[in-house]
Amino acid sequence: MSATLERVGFKPGFLIGDLSNLETVRFSGIRCGDCGTALLGIRRRCENCSSIDVAKEVFSCEGTIYTYTIQRYPPPTPFIGPQPWIPRAVAWIDLDKKGPRILAPIEGPADQVTIGLRVVAQFDIGWKDERGREVVAFSFLPNTSSRSRS
Amino acid sequence: MSRAVIVGVGMTPFGRHPDTHFTDLAADAIEMALADAGMDFREIQQAFCSKVYLPSATGARVMERMGRTGISCPDVEGACGAAAAGLRLAVSMVETGQYDVVLAFGVEKMPKGFMPPGQLYDEWQCMMGLTQNPQYWALNAKRHMHEYGTTEEQIAKIAAKAKRNGALNPNALFRTPMSVEQILASPLVVDPLRLFMLCSPDDGAAAVIVCSDRIAHRYRQKPVEVAACVHAVSQFPLLNASSFCTTPTNNPTVYAMAARKAYEHAGLGPEDIDVAEVQDNDAFSELEYYEELGFCPRGEGGRFIDDGLSELGGALPVNPSGGLQARGEPLGASHYGQLHEIVLQLRGQAGPRQVANAKVGLAQVFGAWGHCGVTLLKSTL
Q1: What is the span of the domain harbouring residue A113?
Q2: Does residue B274 belong to any structural domain of this protein?
Q3: In what order do the strands lie in the sheet with B46-50?
Q4: pTM as predicted
């Protein structure tokens, strides 16, 4: 069995690329031909306007923090985090090129996260599912090669 | 078409009831509503039970306590908005003349701490730790502070108001007044929200008896009219709770949409509201709802609390009961708990929390996946 068969994305249709080579992984979804809304995941209808005029799109991995918070306590189980817990930032991120606004954990020191911070996605193995497959999940890192804007 | 009026309300204290079975909690609230109305349970023609975490057939199990009279009593689930969905069914049945007397009640028993995420989120959201409910409100709060200059002190003032009002409410879980300084000294949970700015899920039950205005004179309390009862699931994007993708659109928020529908149905506007109970999962959300429900313009929620307008004695007291922050939130019962307060206010029976000359009251709930309810009640005098 090849490595790719033993890996799955965190949710079907939300990631595209070769899961055995995480460098190639991107967010995938649709854009509505009627209202222009960008949505994560492969869908039959637009979640905004219910149109069936939707086209697949691969979204940018870069984006800007719209707003954020810091989780000062560990989230409830089944989440497993570092012990003792290290406060972690979680943010809504506007992906570039009119991509969707998505919720994600931000890696690195939480107190350096700000609204307008430029960030870039990274894909990694998050956990194993009940069938023992590795699940590819995502987080974002400050994007040092790209300037901030609010 | 009949008009629907509320002739009886009852609630257990919201809090910790570890030794009371949920059927007994619900039966206690129903008995209080029956006694309030001066009604026998055998007059109830239909019942709706709102609950979220309790097991299947919760309502039917409660009938075991009340007497199996053969009426229909399905469960109505809609996250924290479950009771708004239940009330709407009760009201429609009375308005369309199907029945004259319908019982709407809710009950829940919740563990302490962050809510168990498995029932409200996908597995991957749980595994990634994106399931701390207050984080969604915190994200909105941070953005509001960035755009409008809202301050932590303003958010803390709303928390202090909740504690102050809760101290006057024998049905509240938290009854100890707390200063703005004490609230700002409590630990951060999800920035900028601190421990004493958050509501706690808890246990409790509440019930309202909806009846046709044609027969309301048979009962002992002055009836309160249900002027509007709206329940909706949010349009895209879902800005709060359980969402992963909130790409902006031009759609109104579900709070603004539900409120507009309710105001239109009742022929009322925000300027007519004398008292309100809103979904203060946290102190910031209350500030946001001042704006969303039209009590003040967008961006001016902070000034609304600075000016004392939402305090008891202010122009539009909000959460005189102490709200969710003081009462805690037994999900299925929560909106009925709000209606209990509004009904007492409109009857002039709210004791030390009484809002002078309250004639029109609003209650609003919001829950996971976009469930929102707005109910408008009107004094019939």
Answers
A1: 3-142
A2: yes
A3: B75-76, B46-50, B101-108, B204-212, B4-11, B224-233, B371-379, B360-367, B275-277
A4: 0.95
